[in-house]
Amino acid sequence: MNQEEQQFLENYNAEQYWKPSVTADIAVFAIQREAGATYRLDPKKKLCLLLIKRGAPPFKDCWALPGGFLRETETMTECAARELYEETGAEATVLRHIGVFSGLKRDPRTRVISNAFLSVLSEEKLENMKIAAGDDAAYAGWFEIQFTQGKKGEYLLTLQHDDIKIYSSMKKIKNKYGMTEFKILKNGGFAFDHAEIIASAITHLRYETKHFELIFDFLPEKFTLSDLQEIEERVSGKTLLASNYRRKAENFLTQTGEMTNGFGHRPARLFTRKK
Amino acid sequence: MNQEEQQFLENYNAEQYWKPSVTADIAVFAIQREAGATYRLDPKKKLCLLLIKRGAPPFKDCWALPGGFLRETETMTECAARELYEETGAEATVLRHIGVFSGLKRDPRTRVISNAFLSVLSEEKLENMKIAAGDDAAYAGWFEIQFTQGKKGEYLLTLQHDDIKIYSSMKKIKNKYGMTEFKILKNGGFAFDHAEIIASAITHLRYETKHFELIFDFLPEKFTLSDLQEIEERVSGKTLLASNYRRKAENFLTQTGEMTNGFGHRPARLFTRKK
DNA sequence: TAAATAGTGTCTCTAAGACAATATCTC
DNA sequence: GAGATATTGTCTTAGAGACACTATTTA
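The joint structure predicted for all components is written out below.
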């Protein structure tokens, strides 16, 4: 750096310009087992998303994604990982940047630019984590998530946890510049524009698992083809033919030589992610 | 909004938290014709990117993407469109969000979070635009862009405009959380981390044109299949077999019934983008 | 042996890559 | 007619979807 640059920097006053607040919000997904399994019947799985009940205004008592303000000492990605850890006790193994949400009125407190991230937790991590309550978080919970398309083409997002049901109806639009966005038509219980963020996140997640990315992060080191397929089915919301899915999946897998056992049906081979 | 929320908002002080500066940077691509055409020989095309020579520190005399600070009254996307217009006189027809760049030291002045966008200008728009100089922009120019992979797997970015040549060597890495990023190994003339942003932008552009998105924005309303194919070739950096490309492309095209004429070779059908 | 899940094989259809061959314009 | 580009057709291969069938465990 030469003298001119040095001098410039010393005289530079960053406070002269307006600045927005910047946050990271994280959509954390995990697969959980449903009850009702027997020695013979395997447990069904469900796709879940972590939400936090807001204990303070704005949107008090609404449900929000974990997240918080960017600090001076961290990148956006580090911020996402830190906030996730602080609010849930879970250390993120994977993160993906989903998009930026910068609507003028999305937070009534002040102008907030939110960088949305996506993360996936394995069942193993799920069991070890404590769901911690942050300073303005009253309660956190895992909600079974459903994201489907209605008859008129609208998108329906439904999150359910025991008797708590949160929903939103959205449409997919292209904005003035051809960018695809979800727009909320009805909002039942989500804080801020988080329904839109969640819709973007699951769309992104579906794309990745379809291409055998992120899907292994739901699973332990060793797993069966049925495990893998059921996750793909829960994420995509579609049922698949086992023989065809097997054929595709095997390109991404290595056999361990081990088998499952102890169930009231044929044992299955255990696989690992290839290389 | 109830009384509790109302009261909360009145007491809320946004100034108590640290905030970063937020900018939009835009990678604008266009196709330009090369000289050397005759009645018989059609002009070759080249893919170009708009860069601005910085007239003030930091990175004085280096080349940067057009961009600037987010204002209170606009979204990130609106900011990108405005900055593009102010610095080039071009009204964006399309924009795509590429990613967020939030490294701690990416701007020596102060902490700056940059939201990167991608845009495409048609040859028509290109001819009508004046390249305007902004307050800290000394000069702007269209650079022929090349982005290739070297023998050791490294990525080479070369931008050329007359006798000005800017380059960077990068590697593609997965960060701690599995996110794909470009990391600069050598930097010859780019300001900030803009080489990384450009690498991300062209990677994104290649993905889109391959799927017949954004590619039509390079072209006028009516165009030939050869026009379309040559753009795909310049963007992707690969040559394609005309018969095969035609087969794929026709799914996205409508015939106009019109033909080109006046060239020293067989006339071609003019197509439009389907619906 | 019934219930439940695991795994194999095969037929069809579509899409993509390679490439040969033909068509049509201007000078 | 030569040069240049446009257009059509065909052969082959890879992959996906549908579906029939076989295998292996436990109470």
